Amino acid sequence: MSILTPTPDAIREAARVIREGGLVVMPTETVYGLACHALNEKAVQRVYEIKGRPSDNPLIVHIADASWLPKVAREVSDLAKKLAEKYWPGPLTMVLPKQSSVPDLTTGGLDTVAVRVPSHPVARRLIEEAGVPVAAPSANLFMALSPTSAQAVDPEISLEVPIILDGGPCEVGLESTVIDLTDNPPRILRPGGVTRADLQAMVGMPLGHQPPSAIRKSPGQYERHYAPRAVVTIVDALEANQAGLTFDQPSGPTQVRMPRDPKSYATALYGAMRRLDIMGVAEICVVAPPDSEEWEAVWDRLKKASAKLL
Ligand code: TXA
Ligand code: MG
User: Fold this and answer.
1) Could you please report the per-residue DSSP string of 107-120?
2) pLDDT value of residue 310
């Protein structure tokens, strides 16, 4: 494995690996992804194996721009077009009826496909150059923290790929918002970089939430997920001797001061938890952020990180 600066040559080489059915790690603006040819069943199978992810948990298919939608979706509604125009490239994933060319394995056996156009220039160049839709789950083991830098990709993943393209730290830092447009009204299956308020304004009606009955429809809906090795506990305030994330002046090296605005907090969250994990703390106490809707994506990840293993 090599971590490569994403020169045109390196991107071309990574694109060749993908076209030929291999795997690479690519940067996106949300988190790093373990990328492969989305229409190549063998390649997709390896992604599930390496991540240790159950194969009924669908992957997101990444395309270079909205003109590729008919390659993977059999129906593209006016609403989907409108959302694509507004939010692509960017951290919005839309669930649409699947095109038959997309293997069932890629979509976890569902008749729908989740699609997005990442805005990270390296990801876009890579997909364009590969010339095929690219399936990419976050480049972490099932249920672990997603990497937000090339250096944060765990060895279990990095040792399995020939190339990691280093696109720098991820700007958004949390996985994309997933909106299911096959439901009426559309539902947000996973909150993320594009907020509920923004989407509601575009769609013109209140959007549904993650359905509890569809726990297995998305891996992001497992109770414990996005979790560091340490136990995560949400608290009102940090004691001087507790390790964790705070909004105030840290009392020592195992306390991380977090930004007060939700977007910057999201960008910093996984890196902060990873840092404390590397320091070997047993418990990460996280001071509860405000309870308002702009914090929905952060709260979602904090709840999932702090859920007890069943
Ligand atoms: O930001 C992201 O979306 C990152 C980067 C790499 O693009 N990718 C990512 O993929 O987070 P992953 O595999 O870790 O999460 C996939 C999510 C699931 O939680 C689920 O909500 C949704 O995508 N998903 C995929 N296909 C779906 C489908 N057909 N129906 C419903 N949800 C689907
Ligand atoms: Mg993931």
Assistant:
1) TTT-SEEEEE----
2) 54
